[in-house]
C-alpha cells in the first residue's frame, strides 16, 4: 500500500516525493529524503527499510528516476542493509517494492548494478529476474570515474 499524497505520474513528472510510507508484507519503507535533480543529476528518492512490528531500521533503499551514463553505472535502484540484518532478504523485498513504484511512475525499465565482486548484491539482483547486460568498468564520461575504478555488473529489469 502506498500512502502519503497523490501517487500518479503526469507523463514523466514524478510524484515519488509524496510516497512517504510504503507498507509491505515483511518490511515497510519510510521516506527520508529526496534530491529533485538538476541538469546533471536525476531525481533520487530515499527510504528507510524498517521492520513493521518493531519499527527497527534495517537499511535504506533509493530510487533514481531517469537514464544517463551516470544512472547506467549507479543504477536506478540502490540498497544497503545494515550488517547485523543481512541474510534476511530485506534488500530483495524492498527492491520488489521499488519495482512497483517505478511501474506506477511510468518507467519502462530499470538499471540495477553492483560491484563485480559483491556476491550478495549479485544474488539479490538476479532474484529480481534482472538480465545481465554486461560486466565492465565505467567510461570516462561517468561523473565518478577515476583511474583504476573496478568493474560493475550491470543488469536491466523490464517493467
CATH class: Alpha Beta
Please name the CATH architecture: 3-Layer(aba) Sandwich
Structural class: alpha+beta
What is the count of distinct domains? 1
Number of helical stretches of at least 4 residues: 3
* Low-confidence region ranges: 1-15
Strand order of the largest sheet: 1-2-3-4-5-6
Determine the strand fraction and express it as a percent band: 25-35%
Question: How do the SSEs run, as a string of H and E?
Answer: EEEEEHEHEHEE
Q: Mind describing the biggest β-sheet?
A: 6 strands, antiparallel
- Helix content bin: 10-25%
Distance between the termini: 19 Å
Radius of gyration equals: 15 Å
CATH topology grouping: Aminopeptidase
Relevant CATH superfamily: Gcn5-related N-acetyltransferase (GNAT)
Number of strands: 9
Q: Return the average pLDDT rounded to an integer.
A: 87
**Overall geometric form:** globular
Walk me through this protein's architecture.
With 159 residues, the protein is of the alpha+beta class. Helices cover 19% and strands 35% of the residues. The strands form 2 sheets. A 6-stranded antiparallel β-sheet has the order 1-2-3-4-5-6, with helices on one face. A 3-stranded antiparallel β-sheet has the order 7-9-8. The protein is globular. The protein starts with a strand and ends with a strand. 32% of the residues are buried.
